[in-house]
């Protein structure tokens, strides 16, 4: 998360593509992706992530992630598999931005990576340091906060860019801390994706993914790749999470009936656990990479290489 008080420079301008919850989302010509307007006060955002996010707002988040850690490890493993395919042997250092309770950092450490988290929320950072015994900087991800960090091979941003007022500034900070040829891995909700828009057209739903208190930016594959390219990265791999919208298109419409949400998430987890138990985890990984290339998936991960220098 960035505490940079400077919102992206230039006038934000573009057609309004959604107007839920009394807030407009524009497809911004200046930024090249969709975001809310007006952007909120950066001080209010800092308070949200230092005081509220792991306090009143998400007080059960650490506990619920711990309860599903075996399943989370499947997701973590799919990413580390790709990092290891894309990087030469011996390049195994990672910085996790918005590292939360620290399990992604710990997973990498156990796999032989040198890892460090950057996390503004004090309870989550304390969990990382004191409970897991992992490296963490308790701060926002700014050039000053990481000034003493040795250059790393991967910067991992999981569900971070949609929250910050200036995603491009955060990517510039990532660029600065990456070794030549290193990778940035950005995971974000895949919003305004074709399956969501099909449901809007077919079922008349309002665009249910608009959540302006927490989500300032709305990336699909094109928008995410655009901002990565502008900030000096070349996309090189994609990874989807299960396209949950398929359930709604098959009749289990969790948008109309939110009580179905837990059930369909359970089915998705069951599929992934079953495939791994059957020894088909690699096939599942290839399926999710292909879906990501199609721009599908409830979340989308784009991995992009820092350009300008060779590895
Ligand atoms: Zn803009």
Runs in which pLDDT lies below 50 for 5 or more consecutive residues are 1-6
Count of DSSP strands: 11
Give, in order, the helices and strands. EEEHHHEHEHEEHEHEHEHHHE
- CATH class label: Alpha Beta
Number of domains: 1
Shape, please? globular
Q: CATH-wise, what's the superfamily?
A: Vaccinia Virus protein VP39
Count helical runs.
11
* CATH topology name: Rossmann fold
The CATH architecture designation is: 3-Layer(aba) Sandwich
What is the strand content? 15-25%
Biggest sheet details: 7 strands, mixed
Report on the architecture of this protein.
With 311 residues, this protein is α/β, with parallel strands linked by helices. It has one domain (16-306): Rossmann fold (3-Layer(aba) Sandwich), CATH 3.40.50.150. The protein is built from 11 helices and 11 strands. The protein has helices at 42-52, 61-67, 69-86, 103-110, 122-131, 167-177, 194-203, 221-230, 245-249, 260-277, 281-293, and strands at 16-18, 24-27, 34-37, 93-97, 114-118, 136-137, 152-158, 178-189, 217-218, 233-240, 299-306. The strands form 2 sheets. Strands 6-5-4-7-8-11-10 form a 7-stranded mixed β-sheet, sandwiched between helices. Strands 1-2-3-9 form a 4-stranded antiparallel β-sheet, with no helix packed on it. Helix 6 (167-177) links the parallel strand 7 and strand 8 (178-189). Mean pLDDT is 91; it is low at 1-6. It binds zinc ion.
